[in-house]
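Good morning,

Attaching, inline, the backbone tokens for the sequence recovery test we're adding to the shared suite. The designed sequence is right after.
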């Protein structure tokens, strides 16, 4: 079966990164883990089979796999250890990944992926919620 998001499916390699350390700080990732993450050169493979998408992110230190169906919420453990309720949507040729932290006082995040030519641009956003 072919990928409904055909522009996104395939292998992607990191070419450059901007403000990644600041983003990780805002997600409350410790200094050592941030240094390690900044040295990683991830390879991302996006595939589709039977209505389910899979994103495999590999570095020399770890591999993470995220499996999802568009527009369906699922439970996710992030690479930085957060437990989230997540959902992927496809809006105006942009793949949007929303992660709502299951801790009331933890950070939520949103990332967007957009394919422009032969590059996939990934932008991460975070937001802290005030505790009850």
């Amino acid at each position: 079966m072919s990928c409904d998001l055909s522009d996104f499916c395939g292998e992607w390699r990191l070419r450059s990164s901007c403000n990644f350390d600041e983003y990780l700080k805002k997600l409350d990732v410790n200094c050592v883990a941030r240094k390690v993450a900044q040295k990683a050169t991830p390879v991302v493979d996006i595939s589709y089979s039977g209505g389910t998408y899979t994103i495999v992110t590999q570095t020399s230190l770890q591999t993470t796999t995220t499996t999802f169906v568009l527009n369906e919420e699922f439970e996710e453990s992030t690479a930085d250890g957060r437990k989230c309720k997540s959902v992927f949507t496809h809006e105006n040729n942009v793949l949007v990944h929303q992660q709502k932290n299951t801790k009331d006082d933890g950070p939520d995040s949103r990332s967007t992926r957009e394919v422009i030519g032969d590059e996939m641009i990934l932008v991460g956003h975070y937001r802290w919620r005030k505790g009850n």
